[in-house]
Design brief:
The protein is mostly helical. Helix content is 74%, strand content 0%. The chain has a domain of 134 residues: Tetracycline Repressor, domain 2 (Orthogonal Bundle). Helix 3 packs across helix 4 and helix 8 packs antiparallel against helix 9. The longest helix is centred in the last third of the chain and has 27 residues.
Length: 194
């Protein structure tokens, strides 16, 4: 008879997510994960199959907690398209500045460390990026119909450019999480909508 799992899987994934954010996939050992989650390695393997399985669960949780709220913010906020997009950039910069250098963006870290070698990671990152691009596209296209964004620019290209810059801010924050510096870069990126 199989044993019943006797731990909170969600809490274990959340703890592992923070461990991976601090030290990356390669820098986080099974011992580190056991310490972070309070579980033995056998329980981790039984629940997630492998370190990679736990990493994928942590990446999914990160996407749900950090990436999807940006997409939801874009979809739920109405008004001037430029101000809506600017609000997303400000929210991202504020979150980066609050965190400082303590924890990496798991999306950026996964892209740099795992996407090339793990198709499951790459697929999750593509899905996340596409959702954000589509939400930006919708805001920009609507802004173009309202005369808020120049109509002579391709909304899809603008959305892709803004996602690239948003992720670039996260990369630069690993070097210097200074809010003022990041906001200056964000403001330059946002001029594409003027």
């Amino acid at each position: 008879m199989a044993r019943t799992r006797e731990f909170d899987t969600d809490a274990a994934v959340a703890a592992a997510m923070e461990a991976f954010r601090r030290t990356g996939f390669e820098g986080t050992s099974m011992r580190d994960l056991a310490e972070a989650t309070g579980l033995g390695s056998g329980s981790i393997y039984a629940a997630f199959g492998s370190k990679e399985g736990l990493y994928l669960a942590a990446l999914d949780l990160y996407r749900q907690q950090y990436a999807m709220p940006l997409t939801d913010l874009l979809r739920s906020t109405h008004g001037d398209a430029r101000e809506v997009v600017r609000g997303v950039f400000v929210a991202a910069v504020d979150e980066i500045a609050r965190d400082g250098r303590r924890r990496a963006c798991l999306i950026v870290a996964a892209a740099m460390e795992r996407a090339r070698d793990d198709d499951r990671v790459a697929a999750r990152l593509r899905s996340t990026t596409q959702a954000l691009e589509l939400a930006l596209f919708d805001v920009i296209a609507e802004g173009q119909t309202r005369g808020q964004v120049p109509a002579d620019r391709d909304a899809s290209d603008l959305a892709g450019f803004l996602v690239t810059n948003l992720q670039g801010l996260r990369v630069m924050a690993a070097i210097s999480p200074d809010r003022a510096t990041l906001m200056r870069s964000a403001e330059v990126a946002l001029t594409c909508l003027a």
